[in-house]
Design brief:
This protein is of the alpha/beta class. 48% of the residues lie in helices and 15% in strands. A 7-stranded parallel sheet has the order 3-2-1-4-5-6-7, sandwiched between helices. The mean pLDDT is 90. Keywords: Oxidoreductase.
Length: 253
């Protein structure tokens, strides 16, 4: 089993939601955490406070959708904690809009954040380090289509493909690469989706899940820790969706 204790863990987009839950879980497992946010320093500091209760960490204010931000993230990690061992590509942007109304700026933002950021961060990680783990935060939207999520889904589908290809090439560096594909999680983006669908949590869960509940960020974080620790897992995409993939077609009936 891969031991997380004293490993330097970069978690992009960890000011709230899934990223925050992952950062805290990794700290509770003994990891040294690089908390990352783009603009909301207060959220980053709140995550860091929770991290420091269990282990130790730093806050890196960096926009990982840009080359400058990615360089700063690695520089902060190396200078303050040491060589990164675990990279969690969690930062993401989801803008809900019909395909016919796709905005070019929105599209570029989603590709820069959801796809290009993980690609370039992973390239930096694989080219310079050995013996580590990369986890990409994909989405059910990258597996099953859903109205209004076409561009977001494209970025996540490409990220899933990248995960599989990179696992082949990173194996020579003793780096494992996996992805997690959550359904609707109790986060700000999840709330936005329900609002657009004009459904509350109870009605959505009844119609679009088999378990009758939305996913908690801690449940996603637990899945991430499993993928990190299990040394036989690489090139895999684990869906955690409360059975949402099976129910998704109900939307079109």
């Amino acid at each position: 089993m891969y031991d997380i204790k004293d490993k330097v863990c970069i978690v992009t987009g960890s000011g709230r939601g899934i990223g925050k839950a992952i950062a805290i879980k990794l700290a509770q497992a003994g990891g040294k955490i690089v908390v990352n946010v783009r603009t909301h320093e207060d959220e980053g500091m709140q995550t860091l406070e929770e991290v420091n209760k269990a282990s130790s960490g730093i806050l890196s204010m960096a926009d990982v959708s840009t080359e400058e931000g990615r360089k700063k993230l690695f520089r902060d990690a190396i200078e303050k904690l040491g060589k990164p061992d675990i990279l969690i590509n969690n930062a993401g942007v989801g803008i809900l809009e019909p395909f016919e109304n796709i905005d070019e700026k929105h599209m570029q933002l989603m590709f820069n954040t959801n796809l290009y950021s993980p690609v370039w961060l992973s390239r930096e990680f694989v080219s310079k380090y050995d013996n580590g783990v990369i986890i990409n935060m994909a989405s059910l939207a990258g597996i099953s289509p859903f109205p209004g999520l076409s561009v977001y889904g494209m970025t996540k589908a490409a990220l899933i493909s990248m995960t599989k290809y990179l696992s082949l090439e990173a194996a020579g560096h003793h780096i494992r690469v996996n992805a997690v594909a959550p359904g609707v999680v109790k986060t700000r983006m999840g709330d936005s989706l329900l609002k657009i669908m004009n459904l509350d949590e109870k009605n959505f869960s009844k119609k679009f899940t088999l378990t009758g509940k939305l996913i908690d960020p801690d449940e996603v974080a637990d899945t991430v820790l499993y993928l990190i620790r299990n040394e036989s897992m690489t090139g895999q995409v684990i869906t955690i969706d409360s059975g949402g993939e099976q129910m998704a077609t109900d939307y079109f009936r």
